[in-house]
Amino acid sequence: MFLPMVHPEIFLPPCDHTRETVNIIGRCMNDLSPVMPYLNAVMSRAAYQGSAHILRFRFEGHPVTLQPHEIAVGGFADGDEAVAMLTRVQQLINETWDRRQEITPSTLERRRLQALEVYKLLPRTNCGACGETTCFVFANKLAAGKVGIDLCAPICQDDALADARGQLMAMLELAA
Q1: Is 125 exposed, middle or buried (0-12, 13-18, 19+ CB in 10 A)?
Q2: What is the SS3 assignment for 25?
Q3: Model confidence at 143: pLDDT above 80
Q4: Which end of the chain is flanked by fewer CB atoms within 10 Å, N or C?
Q5: CATH number, domain 115-173, options 1.10.15.40, 3.90.550.10, 3.90.1530.10, 1.10.10.10
């Protein structure tokens, strides 16, 4: 077993103690760096920073950050829920490590898309063809991975926007 034990520490987010959610950090004796490229390969939209040995991804709707000796997971109603999720993340790490022979590790460094970067490449006509009220709302959803670029008829069909379409496609491909 790659990660036999994790020591949990539950805390309120430091930036806002009035929030009604708790976060958890699991401290690990084992260095998690070797498993990160494998998790980066299997977790969609993971953000990997190989030089810093940091991997960020969402798991069951919660943000997860792995560092060499730490697992941080956020957004829980209570400590019991946080501990249960930490156990599931530990299981994900162990299962991924156990299957590493079947996985091609990825050191591709992705980053989160910024809605404003996406918006600048959209036609900004607020035509509504995508089903959103404005291009900026669409840009936010596209950056968050909640919609696909194919919903924007102008960017997909207007040859004058081919360069912008290519840039957007490249950004989406490298996005976390």
Answers
A1: exposed
A2: strand
A3: yes
A4: N
A5: 1.10.15.40
CA neighbours within 13 Å on the CB side: how many for 107?
Answer: 6
Does the predicted TM-score (pTM) go above 0.85? Answer: no
Please state the length of the chain. Answer: 176
- Whether the Cβ atoms of residue 165 and residue 118 lie closer than 8 Å to each other: no
Please tell me the predicted confidence (pLDDT) of residue 15: 63
Give 38-91 pLDDT, tens digit per residue.
Answer: 999 999 778 899 999 999 999 999 999 999 999 999 999 999 999 999 999 999
